[in-house]
Amino acid sequence: MELTDVERAIETVINQFHCYAVKGQKEYLTPNEMQELVVQKLPHLGKVRIECMGDPDEAKLEFGEYWDMMGDAAKGCRRK
Amino acid sequence: MELTDVERAIETVINQFHCYAVKGQKEYLTPNEMQELVVQKLPHLGKVRIECMGDPDEAKLEFGEYWDMMGDAAKGCRRK
């Protein structure tokens, strides 16, 4: 099955979630894991608001919220 | 500036919006433009719910909503 460029792009964003969501066994990211992902994978996308994720030990970022944060980063870099 | 693979992926998803948002001069997609994008660029991602976009002539899909719909498609293909 030959994916289009857009499908491969979406797949890449999904794979990062799975790759970093270790503690949550691919179901959620912890704020620390999200921070690591942002620093390592989104160095040029500027400020992704991690603070609003609450308690670093408790907060769990599920795929939907992760995708929303990627959307924020995307909106940020659209204006550039 | 060398983008990471994830940044290039996000850029690809953004560029599709700009590429198809002709009538809205890159500010919004019409349901017909979104339909075209889905058919041409997301053939394998299965059903992206276009119907909920309302009146095909009036409805305007801004970037945030477009990104959310991509998220729905992503969630759909995560379960596969």
Automatic annotation (TrEMBL), chains A, B:
Biological-process GO terms, alphabetical: positive regulation of granulocyte chemotaxis; positive regulation of monocyte chemotaxis; response to lipopolysaccharide; toll-like receptor 4 signaling pathway
Record Pfam families: S_100 (PF01023)
Domain S100/CaBP-9k-type calcium binding subdomain: 6-47
Coiled coil: none
Molecular function, one GO term: calcium ion binding
One cellular component (GO) term of this entry: extracellular space
Organism superkingdom: Eukaryota
Protein name: S100/CaBP-9k-type calcium binding subdomain domain-containing protein
Organism: Strigops habroptila
